[in-house]
Specification:
45% of the residues lie in helices and 10% in strands. By secondary structure, it is α/β, with parallel strands linked by helices. Helix 1 runs parallel beside helix 13 and helix 5 packs parallel to helix 6.
């Protein structure tokens, strides 16, 4: 057992956690992952600080690492940045889920004429969560080509984990306003807002209070890295308690510039209690994805 695995085992013992469910991890086709890492390697000059990839390992080493960390279930978040890419990615994630039983079968989509069809096909093949990246994809959640996709997700209850906040840099279509309009049209959608909506934390907490299907993931929030540029407002801490059943742990593994343990230490130092930590790090996601059926 590595020192980090031992530290995570101690955290689980301290909190009374049976395991961890991480809703925000990335497994991609190797050429795509290499391009993502190259982007982060070049991000230093763009952001003014380096972004080292802490877990830049071969795919099966990364799977083994999560298992050694006590992660019971995780995702293979992929996202297209152009047309005619999403269906290919969905084929890869289906194959990855088939050979990796602890990975929640993940899929994605892009605003294009065939989106409604391949989203239905992915759900029929067993997809349990979709990844949407408004910033990287450069599209609006309100694109008319996505209307039948959102209708299908609302009808089936399959969650979409959506990066729609304006961090780390705003995009043309990021921010809470389009998501508020989307939810007005589809109020029963199950949306998981990535990164707690960084930096528009308060606005996305408002949406979670208004719509019972809205969840938020903790990815990178409260870590030293994020607090330096986009600190979480202390005055919102009470709402973290009130929404304790709809906050889900996410890490951004492997693309994080610090050890995995730091993400959990950042949650623990919020001092919201062991029950809150158990809900966030395991119970909420286990319920959302029916892991114990």
């Amino acid at each position: 057992m590595t020192d980090e695995s031992a530290a995570l085992a101690a955290f689980r013992d301290r909190v009374g956690l049976p395991a961890i469910v991480d809703v925000h991890t990335h497994f991609m086709p190797e050429p795509v992952m290499r391009k993502v890492w190259a982007y982060f390697d070049a991000a230093g000059p763009l952001t003014g600080r380096p972004w080292p990839i802490t877990y830049r390992d071969e795919e099966q080493v990364r799977v083994k690492t999560l298992r050694e960390f006590g992660v019971r279930a995780f995702t293979s978040l992929v996202y297209p940045h152009k047309p005619d890419m999403a269906a290919w990615l969905n084929g890869w994630t289906a194959e990855f889920a088939a050979r990796t039983p602890d990975c929640l079968h993940t899929a994605t989509f892009y605003p294009e004429p065939g989106a409604a069809g391949y989203v239905r096909e992915a759900i029929e093949a067993g997809a349990r969560v979709f990844k949407v990246h408004i910033q990287v994809g450069g599209f609006s959640a309100l694109d008319p080509l996505l209307e039948p996709v959102w209708a299908t997700l609302e009808r089936t209850g399959v969650p979409a984990l959506i990066h729609c906040g304006s961090g780390p840099a705003p995009g043309e279509f990021t921010g809470p306003e389009p998501i508020a309009e989307l939810l007005g049209r589809h109020p029963r959608l199950r949306l998981i807002v990535a990164h707690m909506g960084t930096p528009e934390y308060s606005e996305f907490l408002d949406l979670a209070e208004r719509y019972p299907g809205v969840h938020l993931d903790t990815t990178m929030v409260w870590t030293d890295f994020t607090e330096a540029d986009a600190p979480f407002p202390p005055g919102e801490r009470d709402r973290l308690r009130r929404l304790s059943d709809r906050i889900l742990f996410g890490s951004d593994f492997p693309n994080i510039p610090y050890p995995y343990t730091h993400a959990l230490e950042a949650l623990e130092r919020l001092a919201l209690g062991e029950k809150w930590l158990r809900a966030v790090c395991h119970d909420n996601a286990a319920r959302l994805f029916a892991l114990d059926r």
